[in-house]
Write a structure and sequence with these properties.
mainly beta, four-stranded antiparallel beta sheet, Immunoglobulin-like, globular, 32 strands, 2 helices, single chain
Length: 541
């Protein structure tokens, strides 16, 4: 029994390779509250890359509303304002939240981005949170790129508003060779007493024309203030520069001792058909784990990926995990099914599945957390997405796994509405929750778009309406390019989304806002038979 546990422990350690990937820290947006807000726009906003496609219209602001069941109405919660860079990409976005007690807007977060010239490649990214006590922005997340796609610094620091200090933090720095290979990665921890970064671990890599040759990981010894060797991995290639072996060592008694290795058998395309993992007993190699992959006739697309473990009691290989892939005729993936072998019933049970349409959109995706001892499902989430003929996202239904019935149960739904049947300008995103019998309002996001140049290109370079900005009460708004024989509805909204003025007008005319309004910013919308034909901002003095 002890031997079996020992082998299992070695196998678990062996499955954690020494790689160039970031270790130990989650690089997703570190603010949980911010994650929730950003999730609400994940179909319209590329949060990871922050790269916004330059189009004729700019999504300059969003307003988030929560449904208030007490008065059956929408309460505005958060406002996001975006500033566009000269090259057309997102330069900053700021978030403010409505304080329901004081009825004032208070700062929340500020995101700032810089790019390399007009390429849209990120050069610098900063996330800041507003500290009420000091009335200042606190930088807590930072990324910097030495050249497009090659990050040289990244850090995160957790700010404690009570102590007015950072309570936790980590940082990475990176160096590259002339071929842009990552040659050094250093991880640091934040000393919260001195506010200085302290060395933690370092990974150094060397390369040849074939690829990665050697990696050495060392840890910082605070007692001696020197780097001490920890792990080493050596990569071996064949004459075709295909990886054939990856050998791991550990530093013991001032020597590199063999620890484990992976042996690879490749197909003519250089893709591995067999990966065999073994650990060194001190006298010989002992097999622990292997992956067998089959491909299509072209030898490019993986069809089945089977993982097996070596059973030390029966001295045989036993199935562990399996991944099955299907493809469309154009080579894009159709589905990916991941399964786990139930060693109690000797049956495959699915735990992860993704299905796509021919345009590459995910239409069905689920994940189940499996107890590896009982093989019961602990919990699960599923997402069902639908798109229109233009591949625009329309709806997503989230379902949770009911462990009692073994069925998927509706939980929430998200629906997007667009400006017209063709373009990708989202005007509203509605979130609802399933209460067991019907969908109940949860949140609503309103998207506001403007022409970056201030000119509507569909009107021969002219705007549909003209007015002073800011304008004084009584000044006219002229709309010479509205068709004279048509009736239009003129609506003015506050920044809370409340209608403050409405009037029916005739095209090619001038009109005046005939009621007294408080000074501030307003949104103008003109519709014809329910279809929006013009939007603008109006600033009233």
């Amino acid at each position: 029994m002890k031997k079996s546990f020992y082998l299992f422990s070695l196998w678990m350690v062996f499955l954690v390779p020494v790689t160039l990937a970031k270790s130990g820290h989650d690089r997703s947006d570190p603010s949980p509250a911010k994650q929730k807000i950003h999730h609400r726009q994940h179909h319209t906003d590329i949060q990871n890359s922050l790269k916004f496609i330059t189009s004729e219209k700019w999504n300059d602001s969003l307003q988030w509303y929560n449904w208030n069941a007490l008065h059956s109405g929408w309460d505005i919660d958060v406002r996001e304002s975006r500033i566009r860079s000269a090259s057309g990409y997102l330069a900053s976005r700021s978030y403010i939240k409505l304080d329901t007690l004081t009825h004032t807007w208070v700062n929340m977060w500020l995101d700032e981005m810089e790019y390399f010239g007009t390429s849209g490649d990120l050069q610098k990214l900063s996330y800041k949170t507003w500290d009420v006590s000091s009335a200042s922005w606190i930088l807590y997340y930072y990324e910097h790129f030495a050249s497009p796609g090659h990050e040289d610094e990244y850090y995160y620091k957790d700010w404690n508003p009570v102590t007015q200090k950072y309570s936790y933090g980590y940082r990475y720095t990176y160096q590259y060779d002339l071929s842009n290979n990552l040659t050094e990665e250093i991880e640091y921890d934040l000393d919260t007493i001195t506010s200085l970064w302290v060395n933690y671990s370092k990974t150094s890599s060397t390369f040849s024309s074939a690829g990665l040759v050697e990696q050495i990981t060392s840890v910082w010894d605070t007692a001696t203030s020197i780097w001490k060797n920890s792990q080493r991995t050596v990569y071996t290639y064949d004459a075709g520069n295909f990886l054939t072996e990856k050998t791991g060592y550990v530093w013991i008694s001032n020597n590199w001792d063999l620890s484990h290795h992976s042996l690879f058998t490749n197909n003519p395309s250089g893709l591995p058909t067999l990966q065999l993992d073994e650990y060194w007993t001190g006298t010989n190699w002992f097999s622990t784990y292997k992956i067998m992959t089959t491909y299509d006739v072209a030898g490019i697309h993986a069809l089945i990926r089977l993982e097996q473990l070596y059973n030390t009691f029966t001295l045989t290989w036993t199935d562990s995990r399996k991944e099955t892939n299907t493809y469309f005729g154009n080579g894009l993936p159709s589905s990916v099914l991941s399964e786990l072998m139930n060693t109690v019933s000797s049956e495959w049970i699915s735990w992860k599945f993704d299905e796509y349409d021919e345009s590459g959109n995910t239409i069905d995706s689920y994940f189940k957390s499996i107890d590896t001892y009982t093989f019961d499902v602990l919990y699960g989430s599923r997402y069902l997405d639908t798109y229109d003929v233009n591949s625009r996202f329309l709806q997503e239904i989230k379902q949770n796994f009911d462990t009692a019935t073994g069925l998927w149960v509706d939980y929430s739904m998200m629906q997007d509405t667009y400006e017209d049947p063709v373009n990708t300008y989202v005007t509203e995103e509605l979130g609802t929750l399933w209460d067991g019998s019907s969908w109940v309002n949860d949140y609503k996001d309103i998207f506001f778009w403007s022409y970056p140049s201030g000119i509507d290109p569909h009107q021969g370079g002219e705007r549909l309406c003209f007015h002073e900005n800011p304008m004084t009460p009584g000044k006219p708004i002229n709309c010479p390019f509205l068709e004279p024989l048509k009736e239009y509805r003129f609506d003015l909204f506050s920044m809370k989304g409340e209608s403050v003025f409405s009037e029916t007008i005739t095209g090619n005319s001038s009109f005046v806002i005939s009621r007294s309004l408080a000074a501030g910013n307003y949104l103008l919308r003109i519709t014809e038979k329910g279809k929006t034909v013009y939007r603008d901002k109006v600033v009233i003095l």
